[in-house]
Specification:
Pfam families: Lectin_C. It comes from Rhynchophorus ferrugineus. InterPro entries: C-type_lectin-like (IPR001304), C-type_lectin-like/link_sf (IPR016186), C-type_lectin/snaclec_domain (IPR050111), CTDL_fold (IPR016187). By secondary structure, this protein is of the alpha+beta class. The chain has one domain: Roll (Mannose-Binding Protein A, Chain A). It is built from two helices and eight strands, in the order E-E-H-E-H-E-E-E-E-E. Strands 1, 2, 3, 4, 5, 6, 7 and 8 form an eight-stranded mixed beta sheet that branches. The structure holds calcium ion. Calcium ion binds next to strand 7.
Length: about 160
Amino acid sequence: MFAFYVNFILFYIIVQNCGCEKYIVVKEPVSWFQALINCKNAGMELASVNSEEESKALDKYLTDNGYIYGYWLAGTNLGDGSYYWATTGRKVIYTNWLSGQPDNAIMEYNNKEGEHCIQLGMPTYSLKPNGWNDLGCECKLSYICQKEETCYSDENII
Ligand SMILES: [Ca+2]
């Protein structure tokens, strides 16, 4: 059993007409690549956000429980330059970028190779952090895994 299971929060969001999504927020910061692997190894997928409804429900949960330094989502433009959800292969259609993002910032921290993975929540950047930023994929962040499930009880449903 690895550390993944030690420090996480479990909750559910009912997405209209899409059943019930089970989410876990893993606080231990890891690179985007490791987050992708860890979610898969837990039988889940790194989270994608496909509608305003899903975005708002997720943001409400994270706001109520305190943002940390943001969370990895499954979006990346490391392929052909467009953003895709790496878990589903679908193009990122619904977006919730923070103002001025994505800026593909060329920084020392990312060896001047730019920013190619989607971070949800950026408290140091905005008083209203519940939007997206592009960030260097090697940065270490908490992350959110999700899995479509049947809802069995009202517990933890927001
Ligand atoms: Ca950025």
